[in-house]
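We close this part of the discussion by returning to an individual protein. The sequence in question and its C-alpha cells are set out directly beneath this paragraph:
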Amino acid sequence: MTFDQIETFYLIATLGTYRQATERLNATQPTLSARIHALEDHLGVALFNRAGHRVALTPEGRQFLVYAEKLLQTRAEALRALGGDDDEVIGIFRIGAADTMAITWVPGFLAHVREKHPRATFELNIAASPQLHEELLQRQIDIAFMVGPDSHADIVNIPLCRCPMTLVGAPTLGLPIGKVGTADLARHDIYTFDRRTRPYHQLQQHLQGAGRTGIRISPVNSLQAIILMVEKGLGLGAVPLCVVEDKIAAGTLVEVMSDIELPDIDFSIGYVAGPDVSAAAAVGTLARRYLASFGSELKPIVETFAANIVHTGPVGTAIRTKLVYNFLAMGTVALIAETLCAAAASGLDMKKFYDTISAGGANSGIFQRIVTRAMETGDYDGLMFTVANAAMTSPITRG
C-alpha cells in the first residue's frame, strides 16, 4: 500500500469520478484504475461500486476513507515539519474568481503563480460567488476568490481584501452637481450584480428600508457588461470602486453622490477542508502576499523625490487630499504674511518677534520656510516650488 494509491482513492471518493481525479493528479485513467485495484488487492476488499458514470463507495470504502484522510493529513504534517516540499503545485489546478477579482488583480497573479509553480497548469473560471461556492463543494475548482466569508462548515475561509462600492454614471446623463435626490435617481436604472449575490440583496434591502421603491435595480451577471452599459449612458452602476477607478480618472465615468448606502464588499479565499489542501493553501498564501505587494513597484521611484508617502485610497482621493492640503498651506502662508505686516506696522522688533513665534505653539514648517530665510538673507523665495521643496514640505499622495 502506497501513498499514491491512498491519495488516488481519496480523490476519487471525494470528487466522485475518475475523470476529475485524473485532472487533479495529471495522470491517465488506466494508471488510477491500476492503483485502486492494487490497493483493493492489498486490503482484500472492494472499495468502490463501479456502476454508472459516478463511482460509489462500498461500506468498506466508506470505512477506509476515514483512515485515508488521517494518513494523508499525517503525511502533510510530517512533510511540513521536516521541510519537505509538500506545498508544490503539480498538475491541473483550477482557480475560481468573482468578476471584481478577475478584472483587477487576478491576471497579474496568474503570471506570478505560474512562475512560482512551473509544473502546474492553472485554469481560471469566472463566476458569481454563489456559483463559486457550489463549484467548490462539488470539487470543480480547487480555490475561489469570492465574496466572503462563506458560512459552509466544509469551506476554509481566509480574509483577502475589502472593496468599497460606488455609484457611477456617464457624464452625458446630465445629473445635478452635488448630491442627487431620489427623483433624479428614479429616472435611471441602477445596474449591479445579479440577484443571487450579496451586493444585490444589500442594495435592494437598503432601498426598500428607505421607502425608495421607485428606484429600479437591474441585475446583470457580467460586471464588464455593467460598465459598458453605464458608459453608454443606459443607466447608473452600483459597482466596486476598484474596477472603475481608471475610468473616473479619465472622465468617462463620474461618481454620483447620493444617500444610497453601498456597503463595502469583503472578499475571501475559499477552499474545501481536507488532507489534500496543501496546494490550495500555498496558492492562497501567494495570493495574499501578491495583493499585499500590489503597487509596491512604484515605491522606489516615488522615494527618490518624496520624504513622506501617504496612500490616501482609491484613484481620485489623492488629488482631492492634495487640493485640501493646499487650502491649508496657502491659508497659512496668507496668515503669516498678514501677521508679519501687522508686527512691522506695530513697530515690533522683528527678530524678537520671530524668536517668540519659533519657541511657541504658533511655529510651523511653513513659518520657518518663509521667515527664517527672510530674516537671515532678505530672500522671500522660501516657497518657490522645486522638487527639493516639495519633498521636504509636503507629502506625496497617491490614490
Observations:
- The longest strand covers residues 155-163.
